[in-house]
Design brief:
The protein is about 20% helix and about 25% strand. It has about 450 residues and is an alpha+beta fold. The strands form 5 sheets. Strands 17-16-15-18-19-21-20 form a 7-stranded mixed β-sheet, sandwiched between helices. Strand 16 (about 315-320), helix 5 (about 325-335) and strand 17 (about 340-345) form a beta-alpha-beta unit. Helix 1 runs parallel beside helix 7. The longest helix has 20 residues, at about 115-135.
Length: about 450
């Protein structure tokens, strides 16, 4: 199949334009508008009425900041907006700073190293507020983002990639490698799905990971030179309490406050240990503030939220589909002398089956995957009808989508608190608290 023809409206391929950046998208790109007039070669007469731009044609420019005037090179025209690469900053933002990482702007891992940290936090708060309004239809005060104690050197897990070396002729990774001895080991290039940027040092990873990285890279290249790899792979480096492992099946231990929690290196666990005491403490306080005596952690994993909150409740029940994670949660409760927490591997279709907690005295913590809650889970949760729900999410967009169903089902939003677990990137965690405000109403879940 031939290459898809470039859509040259309203801009030609690689046409350079100047524009003012007014805001940031949820993907971390700068966004501005360009006027398209009838007297211009960029007239909008070719566009159907539904796509006539209001206030100008939208252009998204990664690594451009609000308040800047930039020159950008268009590489794609979508139906309602264009995408462009940053060529030059003509008028810089007063909040623009020098990025620490030499591959920033090429590596797709970070979006904000050029943005003063206080402003990163301010814009993340604003974006949560905008999602709350636009996706849930709710005007509600968003608390200032809780900052990470570390702006760099915080990430306790990284997963570098490499593509298979090809007989001394480099790799598929954009030509950055030259054979088995030099192929790139790192992360995907900004805006691509296959190209890999070589990353010998990651500024957001912990010091212990970076200390381990050179030996891992050297060993990998030695094995590649011996012809060991027929294809590329994704690697793992996890730092748990100062010990680094690359073994997916290794058991690691993370310290959170006074607790020590064990889990498999490959399993999900929050990757910024420095903010976890504040993060889990807030979740505990929100879950217990209504006076609930019982707690259900519905996506409990190895027990992070259930065990850090157990002291505030009479009884705690953790439910998790993964049987291996449940075993670790049980072991973690015993090892930390927590006797009021039990854990069980739950069927996804019967999360609350057999639970003897009275709903009016129960709080539920949920921390679903990035895609948010599925229809079956929401039906079960609303059927149970707990007093309080504390919803933790790494994707505020899907969280605010789900919030609509909670509001329809008889819950009231009482708090919105973002946490910056991911400085220098567009990502964040957001915690919303919901209180049952009356009888559970009728609702319809749909996607």
């Amino acid at each position: 199949m031939g290459r898809k023809k470039f859509n040259d409206q309203p801009f030609a391929y690689h046409q350079e334009i100047e524009l003012e950046i007014t805001t940031l998208t949820n993907l971390g790109s700068g966004l501005g508008r360009v006027a398209l007039t009838g007297n211009s070669p960029l007239a909008t007469s070719h566009l159907p009425p539904t796509t006539q731009p209001l206030g100008g044609w939208v252009v998204m420019v990664p690594f451009a900041l609000p308040g800047e005037r930039v020159r950008a090179r268009v590489f794609r025209n979508q139906k309602n907006f264009s995408e462009a690469d940053l060529v030059e900053v003509l008028t810089p933002s007063p909040h623009r700073v020098a990025a620490r990482c030499p591959v920033f702007g090429r590596c797709g891992g970070c979006q904000y190293q050029h943005f003063a940290y206080a402003e990163q936090l301010a814009w993340k708060r604003r974006q949560v507020a905008e999602l709350l309004q636009h996706m849930a239809g709710v005007e509600f005060p968003v608390a200032p983002v809780i900052a990470s104690p570390r702006e760099f050197g915080y990430r306790s897990k990284i997963t570098p990639h490499f593509a298979a070396p090809r007989g001394g002729e480099g790799t598929r990774a954009g030509g950055e490698g030259r054979g088995a001895a030099e192929f790139p080991i790192g992360f995907l290039r900004q805006g691509t799905r296959f190209d890999i940027v070589d990353v010998p040092h990651c500024d957001i990873a912990t010091d212990t990971i970076n200390a381990r990285l050179p030996a891992m890279r050297a060993n990998l290249r030695k094995r590649a030179a011996a012809g060991e790899f027929a294809r590329g792979a994704t690697l793992l480096l996890r730092d748990a309490s100062g010990e680094v492992t690359s073994d997916y099946e290794a058991t690691v231990t993370e310290t959170v406050g006074d607790l020590k929690l064990r889990f498999l290196a490959r399993d999900f666990f929050q990757n910024n240990p420095f903010i976890l005491p504040a993060f889990t403490g807030y979740v505990r306080e929100q879950a217990s503030a209504s006076g609930a005596r019982f707690l259900v952690d519905a996506y409990c994993g190895s027990g992070l939220f259930a065990l850090t909150a157990a002291s505030a409740f009479e009884r705690v029940a953790g439910v998790e589909i993964s049987e291996s994670s449940v075993k670790f949660a049980q072991q973690n409760a015993a090892a930390n002398n927590i006797a009021n927490a039990t854990f069980q591997a739950g069927d996804a279709a019967a999360i609350f089956a057999g639970l003897d907690f009275p709903a009016a005295d129960t709080a539920v913590i949920i921390d679903p995957p990035r895609k948010g809650c599925d229809e079956s889970f929401l039906h079960q949760l609303f059927a149970f009808g707990p007093r309080t729900v504390v919803y933790v999410s790494c994707d505020p967009a899907t969280q605010m989508r789900d919030l609509k169903y909670f509001l329809t089902a008889g819950y009231t939003l009482t708090a919105v608190q973002p946490f910056d677990l991911f400085p220098q990137t567009r990502h964040l965690e957001c915690v919303i608290t919901l209180q049952r405000s009356g009888p559970i109403g009728s609702y319809e879940v749909g996607r």
